[in-house]
Design goal:
There is one protein chain. By secondary structure, the chain is mainly β. It folds into two domains: 58 residues, no CATH class; 708 residues, Maltoporin, Chain A (Beta Barrel). It contains six helices and 38 strands. The strands form six sheets. It has a 22-stranded antiparallel β-barrel. The two termini are 30 Å apart.
Amino acid sequence: MQSCFNLSHLTLALLAMSAPGLGYAETLEIEGSEVPVQSTDLPVDGSIQALELENTHVLGSAQQELRQAPGVSIITSEDIQRRPPVNDISDIVRKMPGVNLTGNSASGSRGNNRQIDLRGMGPENTLILIDGKPVTSRNAVRYTRAGERDTRGDSNWVPAEQVERIEVLRGPAAARYGSGSMGGVVNIITKRPTDEFHGSLTAFTNLPEDDAEGMTRRTNFSLSGPLTENLTFRVYGNLNKTDADDSDINLAHTDAAAGSSLAAGREGVRNRDINGLVSWALDERQTLDFEAGFSRQGNIYAGDVGTGATDSQNPNSIISDLIGRETNTMYRENYSMTHHGDWDFGTSRVTAQYENTRNRRFLEGQTGSVDGDISADAQRATSTYDSYLVDGQLDIPMELMVQQVLTLGAEWNRQELDDPSTLNRSIGSDWSALPNSAAGSRSTRMDATLMAVYVEDNIEMTRDWILTPGLRLDHHDQFGSNWSPSLNTSYKLTDELTLQGGIARAFKAPNLYQSNPNYLYRSNGNGCAAGTTAGGGCYVLGNANLDPETSINKELGISFVRDGWSAGITYFRNDYDNKIVSSNVVVDTITNPGNPSQFAGILQWDNASDAVVKGWEGNLGIPLMGEAGKVLSWNTNFTYMQDNKDGDGNPLSVVPEYTVNTMLDWQVNQQLSLSLTGTYYGRQEPRVVNPTRDTVVSADNELRDRDPYHIWGVGGIYQVNDNLSFGAGINNLFDKRLFREGAGTSAGANTYNEPGRSFYASVTTSF
């Protein structure tokens, strides 16, 4: 029995059983819920009668309570099976309220590399977890002046079919996870080992109607079961390939007359994953999990470069030779050991994890080269990122005037990055050396150590009122200490109506590229800042004197649940301070010795921009047929982004003003289930000021909005028997296609491709 099940809430007489048929009290182990319990007792006259007790209330930990906050969504394995993602789980996470896929800025420079963005705070403020452990492999990818990384993020390391559930936490509920969680947290929970032998094999394919778009093929397996009486195991593997779009897919939609450069379609990806977990039951109170995994993720080049150069525009480019090849390959290894304890005083968890990522890629946008172009000599370099993590947590139920569960936790995280390709290269034969740029004098290594302690208390003020205060202290070895207080609460107005709210201070430490004064990044933009000249470009250096980014996150919501009906609305507001941007203030200049009239500026990252992000989220669930809608149900959610702009009037990321997701699920019979999905995306606005140049962008081109549009899909699953099922469906049923109309911001908000109609099918066999 979990110790967070508070027995003081349950008053049951365990009677000595001397009479035949005399019953006994029976409890159910469920956390954070109300459990009906029945008991039989022996009355005075000796007859046996059933005695019904009131619902038993179970008080969970602060973490369990926060999973029920208004800004939290849960995606189950059944949801994933009904609506399988084409490539990775971001395809289904984006269907939740408050979620979109965007770049990390409004620049549009990597328009098709969209990642999970929670409440408009940008992908770099979304923390990805796998089984509660942070995944930070994208830190191995160089950070550009516009705040972008050439990566698809960390949402593609687990095959969709091996996910048990996904927890999406937004707003104050996510602040407990520390640096990088200002927007929220996506926790991917994988399937656990089983006590009996089970296995599965799944094959999935997605075929676009237009052969200019990339096709997907995915195959994965799982096997789990007992090894001995005390040992169980689980292993899964995955092969996944999505082809790249044709390199000229956007050619007919590029406004070259207005200055737009051809931008590529979506890159492809190859995934190979293998993961194993062994769980050892040391005794009835303790388990020890050992996990190891290896993943390989390679992009398939489609011609996407920051400048949009093509062979005709740049005779020296080698783009045509690279189409269809991998120009960027990520290798990720993870090893962890986790101890779970269930004690008389409470529960405990201690985890140690090592994560290694190697990012092997062509030299792209390096110092001495055009920002975004692949080096003409097509050399490769490898950056290596290591993360060491130790964390632990105690949950202690207690009664001090009122029932409560106290949580105590601590973390230690060491991050190390070695990226020789961007730190110790020549700045170009035409320019004199920057300070400290001589060979060997500019270190290729950077590191940071973060330590944290936190305390939370889940307090039952009354039977209907739960109060959850928390306090987290993070210490960064370079940027000092940061306090993150939080306060969340929920109040049951009635059995069906609940009022919830919260406020928290979240923070994000500068990343290793931003904080390292040895980091050197070259941009060849003409006159990229005041003090530079046409053709001079500029260099961006890291800055050791930055302040962490912070955000005060607030939300208030009300929810209704009854017999399958559900409804809710939540208001959120994030006051975002000290956002780190590439400053356009030149701290020094260097002269081109071959052309003294050309000056290159030296810039640094700086805390320059504050922002306000606010809006509304809502949901409505309607049971149409069957008990609580188990036969036919209709669920809809929406997000209204009222504001997500910085002090210059630029959006933090290009997100729709409105997003509405609607899903109709029909369990036709025991074997067949069908679903209909639709998403409406509202108007999307581009940036209006180029913050790296402090200039208003071109009104005839870059200020163009992306008009509203909607996407629909249908799908179904046929369960032949317990061991065989088939799935099929159509994505983008009405073939609403959108094209990327220019590289960078030269097309306003039209910076990504929306793929057209495609047909998918899957088969799963299991035992």
